[in-house]
User: Fold this.
Amino acid sequence: MVTPQAMTAVLKTLQARGLVERSAHPWHRKVLETRLTEAGHRALTAADTEAVRIERRLADEFTAEEQDTLRALLARCVQAIQQDH
Assistant:
């Protein structure tokens, strides 16, 4: 649910930080391919590791029943957001 304009801004920022590189597609010249750089791969790995750590810490704070309730509430939030699109 991200607009093309917003994604373009995100990609430009990632490119400026050296995390992605963009180049014209070999056959479709109007299409820009986007690839992670080595720095991008390292950043992704670090972010994934941190996300898992945070998820585990959050899970430890809730009982199984509370986790189910939270998932249901978040699913309702997603449905509400999607209704606008």
